[in-house]
Each structure stands twice: as C-alpha cells, then as structure tokens.
C-alpha cells in the first residue's frame, strides 16, 4: 500500500512546471489587484473562491467598471466555457471520486487538465488520490502567488510588463512533455492546426472556443485511427 508521502512526492514532481508558472502569474495578479485598490486579503479570497487565472485578471477591470450582473455572467461564461470541453473527458473519473469529485470539477484549470491528461501514474499509486493531490497543489501554488503579489504590491513598485509570458512558457513545457509522452502525433497536430486556423479567422480575442470545438470534432472522427496508432507503437516496443 502506498503512503500519502509517496503520493505527495509524485504529485509535487509532476506539478513543478505549474508551480513556477502559477507563482509568477499569481504574483502579477496580486500586484495588479493591489494597484486597483484591493489589498492582499482580496487576492487571497478571490484565488480561493474564483480560482481562474484569465477570469481573475478580467475581474480586476470588472470590479471598478460598474458592469451589470447579467453582463458579468455572460462575460464569465464566454471566458470560461472552454472548461465544458475539459470536463467531458473526466465525468466518469470524477464521479468515481465521490465527494472529492466536486472539488475536482471546481479546480479543473487549463494547467491541471493538461497534467491529468498527460500523467502516466505508476500502478502502485492510487490514481484518484494522485488526481486530488495534483489539483490541491496547483491551487495552493496559485493562492500563494496571488497573496504574495498582493503583499509585494503594497511595498514594492516595479514594471510588470512581460511577466505574463510565464504562463506561455508553462504551456510550451507541457506541450513538449506530451509530445514526447504519447506515440500518436495526431492530437497535437489537430490542436495546432485548429488553433492556428481559428486564430486567423476569429482573432486573438475569440479563437479559443472555435478551436476547441474543431479539435473535439476532428479527434472524435479520428479516434479509431489514434487508438490503432497508439496500440501498434506499444506492440512494437
């Protein structure tokens, strides 16, 4: 039987890329929130309850913009609706986790989703506990980063231009790990093509949802081909 320490150690190693990305992005959020007039207690509270990198940055403008509740709901849905697609592939797995499944739904960020999809968990480790530990660690990194940013913003003034590149670098690392971790290149190629085409057609502000829809549709059509390719590669090894 595996111990909690072994599960924590494995989960921590897997979440190291997220640790560095979330700390820098969280600090950037905390600083910007403090500059908007909200101290680090607000940064702590928002990161615990909202826990959405992109939406939290949007929230800074919403707090002082006098936006109506309906407009807030519509904007939030448009920004976060991509998570609908993330959750579809984990419905049964989260159901099997019992009460912890509710937290998994709440904590399914872009980065956590990428890790859960890409991890090859050793057979001796409890998969459900590993999933839960990864989710908790990822949020703890974000909470710590946001709170530190709020505290730092109260005492230190500096130019934060370019700090958001930490998240871009995080996604590049995760993409490279998954590229080498899976035999089939079809999912990665489909994602790149759909993202590029959607970016050209819809622009940077609205390409995510069309890209996700296109990727899901194409991957469903190519599902059998991907499975056969993975199986054939495993047999060869």
UniProtKB/TrEMBL annotation:
InterPro entries: Brnchd-chn_aa_trnsp_permease (IPR011606). Coiled coil: none annotated. It comes from Acetobacterium fimetarium. Signal peptide: none annotated. Keywords: Cell membrane, Membrane, Transmembrane, Transmembrane helix, Transport. Its main location: membrane. This is Branched-chain amino acid ABC transporter permease. It holds the Pfam family AzlC. The keyword Lyase does not apply. The chain crosses the membrane at residues 12-33, 40-63, 69-89, 141-158, 188-221. It is found in: Cell membrane. Belongs to the AzlC family. It is a multi-pass membrane protein. It comes from the Bacteria.
